[in-house]
Predict the 3D structure of the following.
Amino acid sequence: MTDEKLNNGRAVALGNFDGMHIGHLAVLEKTVGLSGKGLTPSVMLFDEHSLKAVLGEAPPRLMTDSERLVFLKKKGLEIITVSFADIKDLTPGEFVDSVLVKQLDAGAVVCGFNYRFGRGAAGDAQQLRSICESRGIECIITDEVLADSLPVSSTAIRKKIENGGIEAANRMLGRCFGFTATVIDGDKRGRTWGFPTINQRLPGDMVVPRFGVYQSLVRVDGQEYKGVTNIGSRPTVGTEIVLSETHILDFNGDLYGKDAEIRLIRFIRPEQKFGSFDELVLQIKKDCLTVKGGVTEDV
């Protein structure tokens, strides 16, 4: 590959990047590292999840689109969005020539070991390398990434979150799973018990954590606080709406209408129905003591 090519092109990260886990980070870090060769670090995103386009339904998200864009920009990557409908029927060779070469001016590409591309996902990472190198494009393939001796994947992370294995999921993500949502009006019952809470609806297309109580980290108005977050339908109160309800420790203030970021640190206990509100209040006190004695730093 010539120096002229390197000084007039992009280094393109390839993949679904639907979870931004440590496997994705390995690809992105390799891509950013190619800026030393005169290439512009870039990431190619689809306008819709490939599985939604093919099967009609995408898996639950681990991160919203807006959060993903912020995440990628902070990494120093140029974001290029491509229509999946426009490329899904291209052969592997056509994809390289029409997309990577003509549209993106790729001087190098980076992908994971299990990357698939082309019509019917016919092409794999090794074929990509072969085609790219024949066009004078460098191709870097990252190895499989493990966490807790297990392969890291978005599917595995979703299962961990759905089963309450939030600490293992966080290790695979390289950060704490969570979401940002607007604080909505609630029944204010917690305030009468001495445990005021903020209520939030989970983003509709995100994975739903196991119902229960979590130690959490709350970020609002540029400040961080420890929190106790209940994800579920609050069976003792009697509602069918799934909410995130968080008591923020050592905080007094009105957050209605504001956006608050919730990061789940560890699973404390399953959601349960208590025989009385007095029993519920006693358990909330115990949950708060558990959190006060815990660790809240991000992974």
Summary: Residues 1-6, 295-299 have pLDDT under 50 and may be disordered. The two ends are 39 Å apart (CA to CA).
